[in-house]
Amino acid sequence: PPGISSAGVIDYIKRNVGLGEGAMPFEEHFENERLLRKAGKKIYRKKTPTSLRIGHAGTLDVEASGVLVLGVESGCKLLSQYLKGDKAYLATGKLGLTTDSYDAEGMIMSIRDTADVTSSMILDAIPQFVGDIEQIPPSYSAIRVDGKRLYQYMRDGEKIPVEIKPRMVHVSDIKLLYYRPHKQTSGASTLQSEVYGNRVKMPAAFMEYFTSGRYAWDEKTVVGKEPCVGEYMFPFINQPNASTIQLLVTCGGGVYIRSLIKDLGEQLGCGATMAMLVRMAQGPMHLGRDTIDVHDLPYTARIVEAMRRTQMRVAETSASP
Q1: Is 61 buried (19+), middle (13-18) or exposed (0-12) by CB count in 10 A?
Q2: Which residue of 4, 199, 206, 298 could cross-link 178, Cys pair, CB 3.0 to 4.6 Å?
Q3: DSSP string of 179-199?
Q4: How far apart are CA 71 and CA 238, in angstroms?
Q5: In the prediction, which pLDDT does 224 show?
Q6: Spacing of C-alpha 171 from chain mean position
């Protein structure tokens, strides 16, 4: 689910696997993790009661959701094959805004007009970001420089000691699923014919998270009712008149969808920021079909059954011509 780190999910498993009904409710663990992050300090977790070895095949950002492939004990040795395999992401972006983190958690750096942006322009720009491309990772990322992660430099207000160099990554495909142009706050609203495609519905739990709490849109409580440079973006991700795109991206390891949306926005001349992200698939593992819910993690039998299904899926994929 969104709102918890990959390390936080693993920590929950280690503390609660096998406890079944006696496990700590995931919601309680989730709140503990949220409070640790809110403190703005490095998270130091207490030693877990089990020596169970668990790893993951590629981290998800805290505010992202979806498939997180985990390896248990000897299964950790197999995780590298998932790191190299293709991943599929369902991403929502807001045009006309840029932030320092390239996502809705960051501070707004620029605001530009999107009145001239059309779906045809977006479709024409997308092929430039498919194939082997150079991409500069976000400053807010887990990449290490001189033993310190980039996001730690940013949060501590320190200058990153070296220039972040572009990396070669591979993007297999980008599909524009939906584009809703900016709606005028005065005068006639956007015509339905100007809307491109159909927006894919996000998982219910995901949408609940991103439409409530600090993300809830309420014109009475949002100062100025319009985003401003220097403000955090998250209160505006559900702003009803903002230009919105939804993309389905298939890519290899090392691709930052945040950077991809930011670069696409620059190509369009208006800037863009990622608002929501769901990892729909990783290798042969697809969300829903091959995954279990975090609430199932304390139950050993459910984990074993999930592992059995995974082994069958991998075997079927390997046997395919």
Answers
A1: buried
A2: 199
A3: EEPPPPSSSSPPPGGG-EE-P
A4: 36
A5: 57
A6: 16
Please report how the helices 26-38 and 6-16 are oriented relative to each other, as an axis angle in degrees rounded to 10: 140
Report pLDDT for 191.
46
- If DSSP codes are grouped into helix, strand and coil, which group holds residue 278? strand
DSSP assignment of 95-131 equals ETEEETTSBTTSBEEEE---TT--HHHHHHHGGGGSE
Active-site residue 263, yes or no? no
Residues near 191 by beta carbon (within 8 Å), at least 6 away in sequence = none
Query: pTM of the predicted model, to two decimals?
Result: 0.89
The pLDDT tens digits of the residues spanning 281-313 come to 998 888 988 889 999 999 989 988 887 887 787
Interval 127-171: pLDDT, tens:
999 999 999 888 777 777 777 777 777 777 777 777 888 899 999
- Choosing from 11, 61, 263, 290, the catalytic residue is 61
Cβ contacts of residue 258 below 8 Å, gap of 6+?
61, 101, 102, 103, 138, 273, 274, 277
CB 281 within 8 A of CB 256: no
Task: Count CB neighbours of 17 within 10 A.
Answer: 20
- The structure tokens 């609660």 sit at 16
Q: Per the structure block, which two tokens stand in for 160?
A: 């990153």
Residue 20: both structure tokens together:
């079944």
Say if residue 244 is exposed, middle or buried (CB neighbours under 10 Å; 0-12, 13-18, 19+).
buried
Cα distance between residue 300 and residue 83, in whole Å: 25
Residues 6+ apart with CB under 8 A from 223: 231
Report which secondary-structure segment, H or E, holds 92: strand 87-95
Six-digit token pair at 246? 């939804």
CA 114 from centroid of its chain's CA atoms: 24
At 273, is the secondary structure helix, strand, or coil?
strand
